Amino acid sequence: MKILKLRGEIELLSGLHIGGGDDTMKIGGIDNQVIKDPNTDRPYIPGSSLKGKMRSLLEWHLGFVGIGDGSPFGSGLLEDPLFADEEKKRAAENFLRLFGDPNPESPYGITRISVGDCRLSPDSEGMVLSEAKYENMIDRQKGTAQHPRQTERVPAGVRFVYDIRVKVLEGDDEEALKALVSKGLELVEADYLGGNGSRGYGRVRFGNKTDWTE
Hints:
Elements: E1 2-12, H1 47-61, H2 86-99, E2 113-115, E3 119-120, E4 131-138, E5 145-153, E6 159-168, H3 174-190, E7 204-206
Antiparallel strand pairs: 1-6, 1-7, 2-6, 3-6, 4-5
Helix pairs in contact: 1-3
């Protein structure tokens, strides 16, 4: 077994909101805060958010979503006629090797990819790390704003460092696994990360999507 590593920066092209799960309303404070490291009070991107977004978008890209019941793709769906195509079946098997299979008796095993929490880049120290943006609904008849609510965002221009690791076992198609990770990052770039993507939040750019090390 060997462990491959991919490390680079995530640049925010628009404000990013990944909620911190703090449901406490603070008088005069922001209603919907971003997640922060409790020790440093600095925002970060949870590895689970990035990994989950990559997996979800890859399932759409590879055509798995339409053949399931909405649950994460698993080996139980490999009997679908879609996978009579050997190339599609190989892609599905590599996907299961990379992200794991919900079937406990699967030959593909548990997830091989590990996505660490993305911490603030040293280049962004000293930058403004938080902005408050008002969100509201518009009364269609009166044209007035209703239910204003502040949402905290990490502003565009801030950078984070991502760290992805992949276990490669004997017999694996190493290049195919690396290509899946790179494609997943490209898909996140084309879509968005975090919440409120339909409002323009979460546009990002990944540096170094292909330069793996051991």
